[in-house]
C-alpha cells in the first residue's frame, strides 16, 4: 500500500460481522461497549468508516453524546411522546424484521437484537485482519 504525504494509507479493506445484542426492555440503552467488544478487528484500522445497521424494524440505533446521564431519560421521554405505548394504532400486523451507539428498544419484552457492523478503511499495518468468523477482502486503490 502506498502512503500519502500526510501519512494516511491509500487503499482499503472491508470487514463485516453480524452481532447479536443481549435482550433489553423498552427504553434507551447504551450498547457501545457491547458492540466494540464484538469487533476487536476495529483496532486494526487507522482510519475509515464504521457503518452499524440494525436488522429489525421495531428497534433503532441512535448516536448521541454520553456525558450527561439525563440524555437517556430525555430521549426516552420524547420517544414516548411521539409514539406512546398502548395507543389505538391502525396498523397492528407485523411481518418479518428485515431491516457512544444506543439501542432504542421500542418493545416492552424484546429478545436479543442482531446488528451488522461493516468497516471500510485503511489498515494500520497494511495487512488483512485475521479472524476465523469474519471474512474480509482487501483491495488497493
Automatic annotation (TrEMBL):
Pfam families, A to Z: YjbQ
InterPro entries reported for this sequence: UPF0047_YjbQ-like, YjbQ-like_sf
Source organism superkingdom: Eukaryota
Signal peptide residues on this chain, from the entry's feature table: none
Gene3D superfamilies tied to this protein: YjbQ-like
Family (UniProt): Belongs to the UPF0047 family.
Name used for this protein in its record: UPF0047 protein YjbQ
Record organism: Portunus trituberculatus
Gene name in the database record: yjbQ
Amino acid at each position: 500500500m502506498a502512503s500519502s504525504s500526510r501519512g494516511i494509507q491509500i487503499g482499503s479493506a472491508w470487514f463485516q460481522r453480524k452481532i447479536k445484542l443481549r435482550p433489553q426492555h423498552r427504553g434507551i440503552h447504551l450498547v457501545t461497549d457491547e458492540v466494540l467488544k464484538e469487533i476487536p478487528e476495529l483496532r486494526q484500522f487507522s482510519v475509515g468508516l464504521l457503518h452499524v445497521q440494525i436488522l429489525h424494524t421495531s428497534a433503532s440505533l441512535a448516536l448521541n453524546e454520553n456525558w450527561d446521564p439525563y440524555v437517556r431519560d430525555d430521549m426516552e421521554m420524547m420517544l414516548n411522546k411521539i409514539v406512546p405505548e398502548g395507543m389505538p394504532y391502525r396498523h397492528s400486523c407485523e411481518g418479518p424484521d428485515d431491516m457512544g451507539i444506543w439501542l432504542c428498544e421500542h418493545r416492552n419484552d424484546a429478545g436479543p437484537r442482531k446488528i451488522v457492523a461493516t468497516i471500510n478503511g485503511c489498515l494500520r499495518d497494511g495487512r488483512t485482519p485475521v479472524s476465523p468468523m469474519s471474512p474480509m477482502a482487501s483491495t488497493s486503490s
